[in-house]
Amino acid sequence: MQNHYDVIVIGGGAAGLTAGIYLSRAKVNTLILNEGAVGGQMVLTHEIANYPGIESISGYELARNMKSQAQKFGCTIKSNLKITELDLNSETKKVTVNNKDVYTAHAVIIATGGKSRTIGAPGEDEFKGKGISYCATCDGDFFQDKEIIVVGGGNSALEEAVSLTKYASKVTIVHQFDHFQAFEHYVEEAKKNPKINFIMESKIIEFTGDEKLTGVKIQHQQTKEITAMDIDGVFIFIGYVPNTEKLEGIVELNDWKEILVDKNLATNIPGVFAAGDSIAKRYRQVTTAVADGTIAALSAAEFVNNIKKELLLAQAN
Amino acid sequence: MLRTNLTHVLSEQEHAKLLQENENVMICCGRMGPMCIPVYESMEELEGEYKNIKFADMEFDTPDAKVIRNLPECRSFQGLPFVVYYKNGKVVKATSSIQSKEQITEILDEHFGNN
Ligand SMILES: Cc1cc2nc3c(=O)[nH]c(=O)nc-3n(C[C@H](O)[C@H](O)[C@H](O)COP(=O)(O)OP(=O)(O)OC[C@H]3O[C@@H](n4cnc5c(N)ncnc54)[C@H](O)[C@@H]3O)c2cc1C
Asked: Which chain B residues touch A if contact means CB-CB below 8 Å?
């Protein structure tokens, strides 16, 4: 098994796969290590209609194309694994996988993206797939003529609440603040939908049921009053958190746990770059992740080439 | 037909035959959606490691998928995919919604042993 690479990319979403394409095409020996399914959040997207040059494509298809493009250029991709140890401060970077396999490289690109935020209330894990869902297009049709809650106040929550009225008889949006973060047109569409009603300034504090979810307890944020509500399903869209928990204390992060980078997407550690949704930036899209992946790859390639030149010079002297 | 590299179960008869011919079977019944694709991908990877298990998929929306949809073990399920594990034709475990490769491996080891 080959263990040393020029560059290791951590994360195989849009940013990581793009970095893999650019690096491998430039003959930089590259390994992508990915924790979940290759493609990251793209796989969560039924249709991508804003990727330039492609009118409409499923996220899965786009991810599959990017993966095979990277592999065709010689990139090695390993997925569904767990990174158990990271040594990024040494000159030779070391990544331990599943507590046993150790991979080394001159440079590392972190492209770990983000994941859905969960509520963290009792019962959330227990009733996942049994009334609690994070994907309207996947599970909406299980709630035909049922009463459901959508949690959240951003674009996804309001857009999905409207789309779920195709199935549900009643949709209640539960949001923690007294106003929405979503674009005005999403809010207006939700407000004029007769099946949608709102519970503002409130949070779900417990999910209840037996075999499946049958109810929730909701707490008003000002009065602290707790109300029990019978419900058939809950869809949760409360934003994303960067996948950077393993990087705390290793790479410099901001207050929101996003990775801090310069314009070349270099982190505070020499030879460590970052790209995509896990970095501190305003807009998180496939296009921006792809652009980040490109910049990080070119920066990493330059870094590796300089190291190799220095090594050659040292050998010659 | 689902776009995976797994064995596809296309009918009730094929489902019965698969259970008859294999001691340990894992079937993922889903669509080509975000919660299902990661499970197929994990199964494709595990297929090489667990030679004693037959890994298969079945399209959730085919009428014959009622052999899975209507199982008592899936009665409370409201999230895709429905994944069912069989030993000697009997259901030993069923899960609803996305599962990580780690969670799947734990179930395989518990019910079928590692190779
Ligand atoms: C439902 C939904 C719909 C969207 N729709 C659109 C759209 O229509 N158009 C658009 O442009 N954008 C859309 N987006 C946003 C877009 O998908 C993301 O901005 C983009 O895919 C981010 O790519 P990424 O590579 O930075 O991160 P991700 O896609 O999150 O990929 C990160 C990868 O890293 C892996 N990983 C995480 N932690 C580790 C670790 N410790 N070790 C190894 N691997 C790890 C993850 O498993 C994942 O595979 C959507 C997002 C969602 C969730």
From this structure: 31-38, 41-42, 45, 75-80, 95-98, 100-102
